[in-house]
């Protein structure tokens, strides 16, 4: 699947099953033992990209011990990787909701993502001004806005800068000299 995904991103939806088979080092007929059509292959790749179980497993590996900032940098890095993957696929073939995935299922998957992030934030709830569940949604939105190339005119946001913005906002702290416009 990873080989096919890279090929799909490189060539777009015009990639042929013959090219997929060659890249994977298998006979073209072998593909059709697993997938009935090329669209089914694309469905599987998008389903994998949107799969929250894989995301949850990755997030579970993040060490959120005592340091909230380090935890959030790892979290933002993970979210950015997933966003960039999905955006690369969408850029290559357009938005492709996997077959059999209705809006309700899509919302459930998104909620699982928020829940996973909130679980990482809960041990640090005392440091947050809002509930971990709300913080998870805001953080997702901020990461998306600072990662999606059509939502910003700047390079993809540095995870540490995104975390600083999430935790400290845009206002000067009383102990800092004014640096307006820098």
Shape: elongated
Going by helix content, strand content and strand pairing, the class is: mainly alpha
Mean of residue pLDDT? 87
- Distance, first to last CA: 45 Å
Tell me the helix content: 55-70%
Which class of the domain at 51-168 in CATH terms?
Mainly Alpha
Main sheet overview: none
Q: Give the count of helical stretches.
A: 9
User: Any idea of the CATH topology of the domain at 51-168?
Assistant: Tetracycline Repressor, domain 2
Count of DSSP strands: 0
Q: In the CATH hierarchy, what is the architecture of the domain at 51-168 at level 2?
A: Orthogonal Bundle
Beta-strand content estimate = under 5%
Give the topology string: H per helix, E per strand. Answer: HHHHHHHHH
Description:
- The protein has 182 residues and is mostly helical.
- It has a domain at 51-168: Orthogonal Bundle (Tetracycline Repressor, domain 2), CATH 1.10.357.
- Helix content is 65%, strand content 0%.
- It has helices spanning 2-11, 17-24, 28-34, 38-50, 52-60, 68-93, 103-121, 132-147, 159-168.
- Helix 1 (2-11) crosses helix 2, helix 2 crosses helix 3 (28-34) and helix 6 crosses helix 9.
List the helices and strands and how they pair.
Blueprint: H1 2-11, H2 17-24, H3 28-34, H4 38-50, H5 52-60, H6 68-93, H7 103-121, H8 132-147, H9 159-168
Helix pairs in contact: 1-2, 1-6, 2-3, 5-7, 6-8, 6-9, 7-8
